[in-house]
Amino acid sequence: MDLSPIAEEYLKAISTLETEHARPIRTVEIADEIGVTSASVSSMIDTLDERGLLEHTPYKGVELTGDGEEIVTTLVRKHRLLETFLTDHLDYRWTDVHEEADRLEHHVSDEFATRLATFLDDPTTDPHGDPIPDTALTVSEESVQTPLTEYEAGETVVVAQVPDRDHDVREYLFEHGLEPGTELYLEAVTAVGILEVVPDDADDSVSIPTKIARHVSARATSR
């Protein structure tokens, strides 16, 4: 289905909001997510509804249809393959690839994505630790990880996923050596919700605010 990059961005935004809220999404929420007027959103909703990519229930909100979800998952696959290519072969930092992949994903064909996956030896995760959908657009259940905030002091974990949407958060994690694959010892959880962690190659602890730590996923290990 031939869609404009703008239409694809609307579908992605709705998908993101559905994941966050688990309910139909209101026009004003889409406008805030994308940074456009409600009038622009209403016009695009009508277009996407007519094409069978979402369902709009007046006074309730919109939800993606199966076809809409398939387009979003295809974009996610392209996006994460591109991020992997940029870091592995063009020497981009993992903190800098999200926006670049955002620009490129709309101009990559399905055939190119298939060839790129083969070239990269079919990676299962991107540089942020997010799962890459396979050719059938499915994601392994093993990709589900536990938020760092659910672990207790004294445990040792390995960072599995870091948030990719907020550049400032990515930079904070990078500057403190916290990236996928980093082993952490949870030294303490303070009364104000600050996690004190010690990366495996560091002597001093790093403070991670809860608002960031809850978006960092990890898996348990033993030291």
UniProtKB/TrEMBL annotation:
Q: Which residues form a coiled coil?
A: none
The protein's matches in PROSITE patterns, at most eight in alphabetical order, are given as: HTH_DTXR
Every copy of the HTH dtxR-type domain together lies at 3-65
Keyword entries, A-Z: DNA-binding, Transcription, Transcription regulation
Pfam families assigned: Fe_dep_repr_C, Fe_dep_repress, FeoA
RNA-binding among the record's keywords? no
Q: Sorted alphabetically, which SMART domains does this protein's record hold?
A: FeoA (SM00899), HTH_DTXR (SM00529)
Alphabetical GO CC annotations of the entry are: cytoplasm
An example of a GO molecular function for this protein is: protein dimerization activity
Q: Where in the cell is it found?
A: Cytoplasm
Q: Does the keyword Transcription apply?
A: yes
Q: What is its main location?
A: cytoplasm
Recorded family membership:
Belongs to the DtxR/MntR family.
Subunit annotation: Homodimer.
Name of the molecule in the record: Iron (Metal) dependent repressor, DtxR family protein
